[in-house]
Records
---
Amino acid sequence: MDYQQIIHNISEQIRGIPCQGEVASYIPELSKVPSNKFGVHLSTLDGEDFSFGNSDESFSIQSISKVIALTLAFNLGGNDIWTRVGVEPSGNPFNSLVQLEYEKGIPRNPFINSGALVISDLLISILEEPKKDFLHFVRSISENHSISYNHRIAKSEKRHGHRNAALVNLMKSFGNITNNVEEVLDFYYYQCSLEMTCKELAHTFLLYANRGLSPSSGEQIITASKAKRINAIMQTCGFYDQSGDFTFKVGLPGKSGVGGGIGAVNPGVYSIAVWSPPLNKKGNSVRGMQFLERLTTETKSSIF
Ligand code: GLN
């Protein structure tokens, strides 16, 4: 498969289409990112790498960090975590409050904000130094010690994060948040502020394409069974109320973030990261989705 040529052709086609989306502005620091950035990196399990555009530029991974946080929480907390958070698609926006009221503070899944806040709460209860230990985990699974939080972005979100504060307080009222709400929010914002390049993200996601085993270090980061379940949740819940559409058009387990990034995997074959900041109304990268739809169509690599 000539991935380099295919990635190049599709990227050029996509850049030729006027982009309809808008860069996230509810986190003021994110609105400063130029809308024309576009990067792609594909890594195969055979150890090959292909890239295009701004693939070596760091961006805010935002909700893609929810996959990494779930991985650590699932590793440390085992199946007990599913008493605190569900595994059903929400069919609602990522920051929605509505279902929590009649589902008694149990979020639908770990990839919407409420679910990730519960995962943050769980991690705070387990980790000695949550921010430091989480960053250590990210650096070890990505085998890259330069990955860091962006304090400006975390602080910017904190100042404007009224909905997240509402979510965490509502869940606290139902008894599904055990730690101090400010501490949970702070840890959550720091996770979201992680910065990675497409190349780093694709390399990190290889473990989900490889039954939990890092192909480069040979380390079993999570069990094959857990990797399978995380992929299942990415498939059904990775794009909020557009998860069905992503499955329909792209057909890969994946996760988006409001920084305009998408990480996705074709189990047994490759991982891919795409970055383009303008978002559609559901909070997913317009060009990222267009790119991945064309990629899986041309390479016949939808898992379906
Ligand atoms: N930090 C963002 C928030 O909490 C993450 C949302 C996202 O990437 N969809 O709103």
---
Amino acid sequence: MTSTTARALVVPRNGDSSVLEVQDVEVSPPGAGEVQVEVAAVGVNFIDVYQRQGVYPLPTPFVSCSEGAGTVTAVGSGVTDVAVGDRVAWGSGLGAGATVVNRAADTLVPVPDGLDLDVAAAAMLQGMTAHYLVNSTYAVGPGTTALVHAAAGGVGQLLVQMVKAKGGRVVATAGSPDKLEIARRLGADAVVNYRESDDLAAQVRDANGGNGVDVAYDGVGKATFDASLASLRPRGLMVLFGGASGQVPPFDIQRLNALGSLFLTRPTLGSYTATREELLERGTSVLRDLAAGRLALEVGGRYPLADAAAAYDDLEARRTTGKLLLVP
Ligand code: NDP
């Protein structure tokens, strides 16, 4: 087998979306333990923004994006559980933003029959994130009260549904009436427009019968962190899982004491998919729930690879709902 030429979304240097370039790249035949995939759809994620900006430093140039799905076209030596023609998806590791990629076979999750590849691509990173947040970071169950910020966003929409499916109660925030309506439709028990709030924690408590919530899921970061802490019950869990509004600055740990023996965690998907078993368990669970209609995923926009900058501009400017995809 010879090398192929792919089109790829390249970050040549750190910067805003204007640095993005679509370039031709050589893709070698898959090596040992790898498969080659013709990519059907690529997921747009905030981690791509942090990596492009240099908030998560990486040597440049690199091919952007961590999430995708497609069909296996070639198999390297030693690969036994993936075959040519298999439909596969993944949600970690750089380089997904291309028409053809080589992937380590043990990072792939099979896509169930009946599930579109673009939905699978859209679900992997955010779906597995929501899955670990409600199952493993905090074991949400009947009666759990959860605060979910940016509830009309990619992770947010899935979090609302997963908390509700477990019998929990959701206080959701979002930045516009239309976004609040999306959160309500997905099952949120109470909604708060945090762009119009001058005391967000008080509003969250009001919406929760005057009590603090058990767990705060906060991927907005800098703008909401203090209010999230103040929304928790004593011994509640603060889950800071991202910084869409900016990273949270250094923090005086005594505040956890003053606010009532709070717990704080800053989780990342890699720690919750570190073994092949855990990756397969989470990925398969999310894809099966989607295929069976137990979980709904809104694809809020599809952009050609050449228009990737517009997708990231929309995401960063809070103009999007649900999940954005790049279609190579
Ligand atoms: P979203 O689709 O949720 O988009 C981000 C949303 O955040 C916006 O739509 C906006 O909603 C809200 N927001 C509030 N303030 C700002 C701001 N200043 N700038 C931009 N957005 C703002 O994105 P994702 O679902 O892809 O990601 C959500 C978060 O989850 C990110 O922080 C991401 O890094 C994190 N994440 C973390 C993972 C982990 O394992 N730790 C894995 C995956 C994602 P509104 O208009 O309603 O305010």
